[in-house]
Every structure is written in C-alpha cells, then in structure tokens.
Amino acid sequence: QVQLVESGGGLVQAGGSLRLSCAVSGRTFSNSIMGWFRRVPGEERDFVAAITWSDGIADYRTSVKDRFTISRDISKNVVYLQMNTLKPEDTAVYYCASGASARIKRNFYDYDYWGQGTQVTVSS
User: Taking the CB of residue 72, how many other CB atoms lie within 10 A of it?
Assistant: First the structure.
C-alpha cells in the first residue's frame, strides 16, 4: 500500500521560508512522478510543482518558479518543496501526490495517491 506523509507546514511571515517534506512508502519508483498541489477553501487543487523520480526533471507553476524548489532524496524516499520568499497568496493546504508516469503531469487526476495535506499560512 502506497503511503505519503507530509510535514513541515506552519505559519510564516511574508518573505520567509518553509520546507515541506513528503515521505513515500510502498511505491515502485521507476516511471513515477511526485507532485505538490495546493488548495484554498472552495477551490480545486492547483498544481505547484512536480518531479520525475528517476531523473529529477522538474516543473513549476509560473507564480512559484523562481521561489520554490522541488527535489527528491532517493536514498530516503523523500520529496521536498523548499519555499522561499513566501507571499500571503501562497497560503493553502499543500498536498503531496504520487503518479505512475515517466513524464511530468500537471493535472491532479493524473496522480493516484495523496498525502493528508499540511497547512501553510503566510501572514502579511
């Protein structure tokens, strides 16, 4: 059974940084992708970033491209999202997700396993 466990959310002032972690178990990592999505109340999950597990190719939504970095530690089976220069509009519940694909996917329905989510709140 695939399990994803996120950690690292919290409250931070605008301009600050947070690092989210997602520990992955139970998944065969060849031809898989890991993604981070976020959701605010009343809206659907939005793509934030994704990375291919095998070769580390990454993709970002435009609004975070120069501020966030997604990475993976193969030895620990952990995916990270380093978030710098945070803005109030980054406030959301952040979800880690895993999908069976060799290529980056941006749509949430391409991911079949999800973590429980972690709250990120950025105060102005």
Answer: 20
Give the integer Cα–Cα distance in Å for 82 and 71: 8
Percent above pLDDT 70 for the chain: 99
Mean pLDDT of 14-37: 92
- The pLDDT score that the predictor gives to residue 12 is 98
Nearest to 24 by CA among 96, 123, 92, 90: 96
Q: How many CA atoms lie within 13 A of 1 on its CB side?
A: 3
The C-alpha angle with vertex 70 and arms to 64 and 76, in degrees rounded to 5, equals 160
pLDDT at residue 31, rounded to an integer: 84
Unique residue bearing structure tokens 């976020």:
38
Distance between first and last Cα of the chain = 40
Plot region of 10 (φ>0 → left; ψ -120 to 50 → alpha; else → beta): left
Distance CA 64, CA 51 (A): 15
φ/ψ bin of 117: left (φ > 0), alpha (ψ from -120 to 50), beta (otherwise): left
Provide the β-strand partners of residue 19: 82
